[in-house]
Amino acid sequence: MTECASFEAMLEAEDDAAIGKAGMTRDQLLAACRSIYPPAKEALGVFAIHLELQPA
After folding, report:
1. Which residues contact 56 (CB under 8 A, 6 or more apart)?
2. InterPro entries, per this entry (predicted)?
């Protein structure tokens, strides 16, 4: 898990492909994140949680 100050900082620190759909631009990713969480919630900080599928 990584803590970031904003969605922009998260996008700078993380791999775009791990955040959104394949082919999404950075602007599209930022807009998608901000459509879910308003500025007041983003101001509290952003957590990037890394998940990895494990074989059964």
Report:
1. none
2. PUA-like_sf
Instruction: Write out the E strands in 1-51.
Output: 2-4, 46-48
| Domains of the chain by residue range | 2-48
pTM of the predicted model, to two decimals? Answer: 0.81
Give the chain's mean pLDDT. 92
Contacts of the segment 3-8: beta carbons below 8 A, 24+ positions apart: 3/45, 3/46, 3/47, 3/48, 4/45, 4/46, 4/47, 4/48, 5/45, 5/46, 6/42, 6/46, 7/33, 7/34, 7/37, 7/42, 7/46
Q: Is the model's pLDDT at 9 over the cut of 90?
A: yes
Q: Which two tokens stand for residue 31?
A: 């807009």
